[in-house]
Amino acid sequence: MKIYENRQQNKRTTHCPTCGSEGHMWMTCPAPAKMMELQKQGKEPDITLYGQWQQQSYGRRDNNGKLVYHDTIFQRMGIAHRRQERRKDDRKEKKARKERLYGKPAKRQSSCGFCGETGHNRRHCDVMNNFVDDLERASQNYRKQFYERFVKGMGFAEGALLSLSADHWRDKGGWIENFSGIGIITKIDWDKVNMGLTLNSWEYKSVMKIETLVNGDTFTLENPWNTIVENDTVNGKAGKIAELFARGSSWGVRIDNVLAPSENIPSEEWFNNGYTECWEWIAKNRRLHEVNAYLAPLIAKFHPSRRGRNAGKLKKRLEQYGWHTS
Fold this sequence. Notes:
The protein is α+β, with helices and mostly antiparallel strands. Helix content is about 40%, strand content about 15%.
């Protein structure tokens, strides 16, 4: 799912101006206090407390083996340490002044970042734990259906022969309009087979890449399911194959059909041990009301307990997630 695949893209990296290392700022930098302790003990500065670039700069030694910037390091670290201590004192004084003027602030009752209820947090949230478990079970069931219907049923795997089409095709000689041709699957991104393939929403959909060999050149297709969905939809009702994919834009290359099945499909045991870690990550980083409209319907559609003796329990949990089945 894009929200999970792109989780590192907008993550900011902090760089400390004091030591040059990543992951903290000057207020919490451990280097000044450690350097001051070394100075008190009469030892030389520990260059490894700096980042890589500063180690190269401050690690130079003279002919006698003494650090060239021995005194400079202690001087600068002393200034940084006193600055940290002043900040701590200022924060304590500010807190004490507020308490004198307004009294101690009332202790706020904690609330869960996932479901919003008070009295617990995400770690002890039954709703979140059930939500993640239901998503994992639904996703595993989706993969089983994908394997039975599409991989095993149609022979979709590396080596399969495909009928392809596109309104516009980028070839060596330029753009070709109304392209139709044949391709052989050379590589499939199997890790992306999950319920996100049934979604169109930008954040929560999955993008599955398939490499194909066409006329001696390798091309990468992304979610080329539109024609497959159209061909397996009658009077607005999706068939067994169409249920596995979202109907997307007609732009781009489309798989029209599997002309010849693969003779080397993956084993069912290997295939069913797949992509589940995204669900827990999403629940830990989003609130229920932000994701339930996208993910709860997937549970209702693919969960193995949607029918049978446990269907009533699943229905109650779906209502907790804000999804009401008819």
